[in-house]
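A student in our group prepared the protein record below, which I am reviewing. What it holds is a sequence and that sequence's fold in token form. My question to you is simply how this chain folds and whether the tokens agree. Do not assume that whoever made the record got everything right. I have pasted the whole thing underneath without changing anything:
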Amino acid sequence: MVDNRYATALVIGFVLSLLATVYLAVAVGTQHWYQYASPPAHGDANASELRALHEEFVDGEFDEKTYSDSLFRLNGTLGLWWRCVLAPTDAGWHTQPDPKMVMECVSFTFPQQLTPKYKEPGNHNSGEDMIRTYLWRCQFLLPLVSLGLVVLAGVVAFGACLCHSLSPVLAIGLLHLLAGLCTLATVCCYLAGMDLLHRVSVLPERVDGTLGWSLYLALISSPLHMMAAALLVWAARSHSQSYYRMTAYRVA
């Protein structure tokens, strides 16, 4: 028999866990972690340059400097697995004063995620920037670890339901705590990596960068996981202590 207080804590904890997992999954799958606002093209020469950047972004080889310049100049958005630019349609680069804009996205492949970063983006002779390289790798591996921990917690919770036992709830709470810490570390790695990228790259004039809603979803997910962990651990510990006291009373 589970006390109503513990049952309520378990229900709230699992609801918070579900919300946190959904927020994190959406954040990982979307590209709006960081957004650039770029000035419009001025003149045919500038339009031709931007069109060349767009074509290189979509069809060219993977290169950090190339896609970074495209993001800077073409209202780009950058996520953990996607990079996107906002560009006119093919007919709108020169002929229309207010062309129709379309979002075009390219995904990062797994080998591209592991590609080293260089002290000067695009210059392989400048030497590998170990800090940026490992920040980049951590920012896409840690959310996968976090989701994996949540899935493992779900499997343990399913087993606990089949066994009609609250003993595994403590382990479930600890798994959620680790998931929240991994998510928080993801956001920290991403912000640190973007800050270092802007230090080694030359941002064009009148280009502004802002944090996107995908990053905020991940940031919200972390405390939700931790609150769920606190409720689950409290319910498991309190119920265990109450059970032991009741057993001792009956024995006495």
Observations:
- Residues 4-241 form a domain with the Butyryl-CoA Dehydrogenase, subunit A; domain 3 fold (CATH 1.20.140.150).
- The longest strand covers residues 82-88.
- The two ends are 21 Å apart (CA to CA).
